[in-house]
Amino acid sequence: MGNVEYTASLIQNQIGGDVFRIETVIPYPADYSDTTNQAKNEQNENARPELVSHLENVSQYDTVYLGFPNWWGDMPMAVYSFLEEYDFTGKEIHVFVCHGGSGAAGTISNIQSLQPGASVDTNLLTLYWTDVENAENLVMNWLN
After folding, report:
1. Structural domains present in the chain
2. pTM of the full structure
3. Strands 92-99 and 63-69: what pairing?
4. Do residues 63 and 36 touch, judged by C-beta distance below 8 A?
5. What average pLDDT does range 47-74 have in this prediction?
6. Residue burial 8-41, b: 16+ Cβ < 10 Å; e: rest
7. How do residues 3-20 score in pLDDT, each as one tens digit?
8. d(Cα 117, Cα 144) in Å, to the nearest integer?
9. Would the pLDDT of 29 be above 80?
C-alpha cells in the first residue's frame, strides 16, 4: 500500500465513504525513481493520462477527499485527468498530499482553477513521506 492509499484508508476508517483510486491505463513503474521520471515526462508534455475507471454518479457525493503524491512540485497529471473529467460544482473538496519535501506547492490553486464551482478547503493535510507510517493522529486532528 502506498502513502496516499494508506492515508486514504485512515480517512475512510474515521469517516466512512467510498474510496476511488485514480489509476492510469499505462501503470506507473514499481520503482520509485522510474515513477518520478515518468511523472516528470508527463509534466513536461502536459499529458493527460487515460484513467482505468470512472466515477459512475458524481452527484451522489457532497464531499470529496482528494489525495495524491506531490511529484516535482505538482499533482500527478492523472489527477488533472480526473479533475477535468468531472464537475464538482457545489461540492467540498478536502485535499491531502504526501510529499518528499515540497509540501503541497501550488496544488490548491490548481485545483481551484480546475474546479471553480467547488469549495476547495485551504486547510489541507500535508504528510512528509517518512511521517505517513505514524500519521493516524495527524489525520484524526485534520478531520476534526
Report:
1. 3-143 (3.40.50.360)
2. 0.95
3. parallel
4. no
5. 96
6. bebbeeeeeeeeeebebeeebeeeeeebbebbee
7. 999 999 999 999 999 999
8. 24
9. yes
